[in-house]
Structures are given as structure tokens and as C-alpha cells.
Amino acid sequence: MKFGLTLPIGHLLRIATATIAMAAVLDRMPEARSFGMLALHIAAGAAIYIVVLALLYARTLARLLRSRAATPHT
């Protein structure tokens, strides 16, 4: 049975790239032996993931921001 859905390969590749980058950074960090270090690991992982995705979606984000800036606010 066909549903007409297509797999968004481009998006999945970007997500996979950000995930691999995050995992590589976290793998190089020392073991979290306290809640503070665990929080640092979580913050570092999230930051790397967000930065890599932002870089990979830079054109899309720029286009979105330009269109928002051009739209009059009511």
C-alpha cells in the first residue's frame, strides 16, 4: 500500500551529521563523575548539536530571517 510519502533524505543526513559531531565531542570528554559534570556534558552536547545544525541549515535560516524581516508586523 502506498501513502505517497517520501523520506526527507537531505534533512536526515543533516541530523545524522549533527548527531555524529555531538557524539564525537562527548566521546572526547572525561567521564561525568558528578551532577555538575553531567550538566556540562549535556550543555556541551546540546550546543554542538545546535551549532552544527545551524551551520548546515544556514541558507534556510537566512532565508527565513529575511522573509520575517520583510513581513510587516501587526
Detail the topology: elements first, then pairings.
Elements: H1 9-28, H2 35-56, H3 58-70
Helix pairs in contact: 1-2
Detailed description of the structure:
Helix 1 runs antiparallel to helix 2 (35-56). The chain is built from 3 helices and no strands. The longest helix has 22 residues, at 35-56. With 74 residues, it is mainly alpha-helical.
Could you list some keywords that capture this structure?
74 residues, mainly alpha
Q: Give the overall shape, derived from the CA principal axes.
A: extended
Strand residues, percent: under 5%
Name the helicity range. Answer: over 70%
* SS elements, strand count: 0
SSE string: HHH
Q: For the CA atoms, what is the radius of gyration?
A: 18 Å
In terms of structural class, how would the helical and strand content be classed? mainly alpha
Give the mean pLDDT.
93
The largest sheet, given as strand count, sense and whether it forms a barrel, is: none
- Low-pLDDT residue spans: none
Q: How many H/I helices?
A: 3
Q: What is the CA-CA span between the terminal residues? A: 46 Å
